[in-house]
Design brief:
- Helix 6 runs antiparallel to helix 7 and helix 7 packs across helix 12.
- The longest helix has 47 residues.
- By secondary structure, the chain is α/β, with parallel strands linked by helices.
- The chain contains 16 helices and 16 strands.
- Strands 6-8-9-11-10 form a five-stranded mixed β-sheet. A five-stranded parallel β-sheet has the order 13-12-14-15-16, sandwiched between helices. The protein has a four-stranded antiparallel β-sheet with strand order 1-4-3-2, with helices on both faces.
């Protein structure tokens, strides 16, 4: 029986290299010309061995890298330092790019003469994309925390400004002075709208989530959208008859949809068509979705406009980023839509490329069968001007505290003031019980929510009003039951209604 000779070390090495298909492994001569080519290199870069052997390895580098001399630098560093390793863009035969990890090692003979280089290239595009996704998520979370804090501080300032302006207007003698004050009030209210958009991005806005019929919502605001975009553009809609209900805040969704339509209008200054459509979609648990796997209603707004390049698209939802001229955009519109979708359990997905238009998709969870569509019911009649009573006002911000007291005293109320939760409890423990307690939420050491819990334990029937610019209370906060929420910044009428609602829920002393 004749046995085949065992393979030599060189043959075993060649067999090993040819068996590797996930890495491009090939040899270069001292000048950088390719002398060998493995199947992994052909799979990764698209060239056959016959096509590429003999050519310079700079073929795979981008024009930018070739212009800076990177291929030559790579060989020089490998020869001098014993290794070159770097990540960067590389080109395939078809011209497409991929993000590569590249290692170049020098090969020397027994006399230590350089006879060539061994080069290994690995496609790490998916790893880079995952790292960028994590970085983007971390960046958005950090920006969200920053904007949420800024919005809270601005809400406090606007609460004081609006309250003082409203009282000043009521006390103004001259009509022209009252008009000036009204202009200032409108300006402050526009500022309040901006803070709401910041809170929306930070996922801290107040939402009323309920099942919504998307077709009805879009139909109900059709006239508003047409008046907003003007006669140069056409709006077309497409909704299947069996489209399920979506879980969202209808009022906030209207605002988000109007924002997208305005963006579409601005992208088509010469006119065109805006298509609003919806369909049922299924999200799988994979890297293409930042939402939970399940059923969704995908509401889309598509334009035929100028589109966005990759850099603009990547920054589109970042707060204050805008491509519009100075004074024509705050850069908060898409940030607000992004935050709304996340808070609803959905996501905003943007598809765009230059000269091919943009499609903005709003993915909203499908309402369960147990959900019921919210219907408008007559609200309980509330006394807009409650009977004069004593109100304990708690706020650590002296400016806001003074403003709240001013608004209440103008309504004929007597006030007791406390600058912290601890001080408020000390007042209550003396037996000096007010008719209602109005407290800010964001206070140091003891939050307004914690103060309400302490008061509930000691005085179960005392009416409570919690003023806050945030939508969600901290995790672990016990349910506050019939505590009335008052959203900052608030007007005198809103404060008055909150007092009436609190008195109906509890027992005013």
């Amino acid at each position: 029986m004749i046995q085949e000779p065992s393979p030599s070390a060189e043959q075993r090495y060649r067999l090993l290299i040819e068996a590797i298909t996930d890495y491009a492994i090939y040899m270069l001569d001292p000048a950088g010309n390719i002398t060998s080519w493995n199947p992994g290199a052909e799979r990764l870069k698209g060239y056959s061995e016959a096509e590429i052997v003999g050519k310079h390895f700079s073929t795979f580098y981008t024009a930018e890298d070739r212009a800076t001399g990177l291929p030559e630098d790579a060989l020089r560093i490998a020869a001098q330092e014993g290794r070159f390793e770097r990540e960067g863009w590389r080109l395939r035969k078809d011209g497409s790019r991929f993000w590569a990890n590249v290692i170049i090692d020098p090969i020397r003979n027994a006399e230590n003469e350089l006879i060539g280089f061994a080069k290994i290239t690995r496609d790490i595009s998916e790893k880079r994309a995952a790292q960028e996704a994590i970085f983007q998520a971390q960046k958005m979370e950090a920006v969200g925390q920053l904007t949420g804090g800024l919005a809270h501080d601005f809400n406090n300032l606007l609460t004081a400004i609006l309250g003082s302006l409203q009282i000043a207007k009521k006390r103004a003698v001259r009509a022209d002075v009252a008009d000036l004050i009204e202009n200032a009030i409108q300006g402050a209210q526009r500022g309040a709208t901006l803070t709401q958009r910041l809170l929306a991005f930070a996922r801290r806005q107040e939402l009323q989530i309920s099942p919504v019929r998307i077709a009805d919502l879009v139909g109900g605001m059709a006239d508003l959208m047409r008046r907003t975009i003007g006669p140069e553009l056409i709006i077309s809609t497409s909704f299947p008859a069996d489209l399920p209900l979506a879980l969202t805040d209808g009022n906030q969704l209207e605002s988000a949809l109007l924002n997208l339509v305005v963006n579409a209008r601005d992208a088509m200054p010469g006119g065109g068509e805006i298509t609003i459509a919806a369909e049922r979609r299924t999200a799988k648990a994979d890297k293409n979705h930042s939402i939970a796997a399940g059923e969704y209603v995908c509401l889309s707004v598509t334009d035929q406009g100028e589109g966005m390049d990759a850099e603009t698209l990547a920054n589109a939802t970042t707060p204050f980023f805008t491509t519009k001229g100075i004074g024509k955009g705050t850069g908060l519109g898409l940030a607000m839509v992004h935050g709304l979708m996340a808070q609803c359990g959905g996501q905003l997905v943007l598809h765009s490329s230059p000269d091919k238009g943009t499609r903005a998709e709003l993915w909203l969870p499908v309402a369960t069968e147990a959900s019921t569509v919210a219907t408008s019911t007559p609200e309980a009649t509330l006394d807009p001007a409650p009977t004069p009573m004593t109100v304990l006002v708690v706020d650590d911000d002296a400016l806001v505290l003074m403003n709240s007291v001013l608004l209440l005293e103008d309504l004929g109320m007597e006030t007791i003031q406390a600058s912290s939760g601890e001080e408020a409890l000390e007042i209550l423990e003396t037996g000096q019980l007010p008719a209602v307690v109005v407290t800010d939420h964001a206070m140091p050491r003891m939050t307004g929510a914690q103060l309400c819990q302490r008061i509930r334990e000691r005085f179960p029937t005392l009416p409570l009003v919690l003023a806050t610019g945030y939508a969600e209370l901290p995790e672990g906060t016990a349910p506050l039951g019939d505590v009335v929420r008052l959203t900052k910044p608030f007007s005198q009428d809103q404060l008055s209604r909150a007092l009436s609602e609190a008195c109906q829920a509890g027992r005013c002393f």
